[in-house]
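Format notes (please read before filing issues)

Several people have asked whether sequences and structure tokens are stored in separate files. They are not. Every record keeps both together, in the order shown below: the sequence lines, then the token lines. Line labels are part of the format and must not be stripped during preprocessing.
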Amino acid sequence: MNTRRLRPLPMALSMLLAACATTPATKLPSPTVQAPTPEPVRNIAHPVTGVALPVDDDANIWDQLRGSFAMADCDADPGIKLWARRYTQNPQRFEDQIAAAAPRLAYVQQIAAKHNVPGEFALLPWIESQYRPLFGGKNLPAGMWQIMPATANAMGIRVNQNFDGRLDVPAATDAIMSLLSRYHDDLGDWRLVDYAFNAGEFGMRRMIDQHGVPPAEPVIPRMPVKPVTREHLVKLLAIACVIRDPARFNVSLPTLPSEQRLVAVNIGNSMPIAHAANHAGMSPDELKDLNAGFRNGMVDSNASPYLLMPSNRVQQFQSALLADNNSGGQSVPGTTTLPPLSAALGAATDDDGDTTSAGRSKATGGKTHTVKSGESLWTIAKRYAVDIKQLQQWNHLQGAGVKPGQVLKISAPG
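Then the structure lines:
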């Protein structure tokens, strides 16, 4: 069979990535990784800008996931059904586990879609860690992707005594999806991409040079890879099988309300994670679990300029930061003073163009704001740290549309 010429990838990544393959209930073994070559590898930038990735909040995440699948279904290989039944042999336990994983899974699927990576690969953390932020010791894999320290270094993921970017869900996921996309550019087969993720891309390229590209059948390619690598692909297709047809395995998939979807929110300064959790109305353990990269109880904005949290906590968190700023930037021990988050916080522009304190309605004594060109109800609400629904109620608005020159009440009528 004619072999397919492949363009070279950075050798460091080719030799480094060898993710674990094990059942979620067992201890994850440490993969063997070769030392990186000195060839430089590009740094992978943080993928977030402080807002949620585009998503249809009303859409069923499982329908979205199924719609992005690109590999074989449940009946393509007996091993797929075997592992699907193993995952669901205790239906209640499986449902609890997938419900706990759902917020992270949905976030991962959004990043996979951004990189045009099939939905099956959003399920990889199920195999590696069940989406748990697993901590790794020295020279051990860590995070829900189980990334080795040397691999993290080659991928531009920051790891030091205060911060472990392998446990930073947005950055690590973006780095992995970018890598998988590049694997597919060279290998041309998503099955081989999974083999490469588990066993290393350099070895897969060498194997293709020797044996050629495998045919579409059998679904699990008969290549001279280790059994654990072959089983890794079977497991991935098995959990995708359960998502495809949960009723077949007597399980139900949970709903994920829009308010539970995860959002990466920019922060302007470092602070204790307990302080950030209080601002968000969460327990420190809850926020730490979503932002496990911060190792010493501090949110270090130099290491990662955002926090991951459920969308229903974002407004409270941002409003608390604004309140801190309005009160004079009271700093918490171990933090820097909060910088201004808006150049015109608490100020409004009068009709004559002069910038003053917010106007005051003579009739009611409540504060008012005159809408300027380019402003929206959302920007005005953010400016004054109030809820959009409150603005609509105070101003008897049916929708979110406002017009330049319109005078809005921005506080409850006095």
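For reference, the curators noted about this record: Residues 91-114 form the longest helix (24 residues). The chain has three domains: 11-249, 261-326, 347-409.
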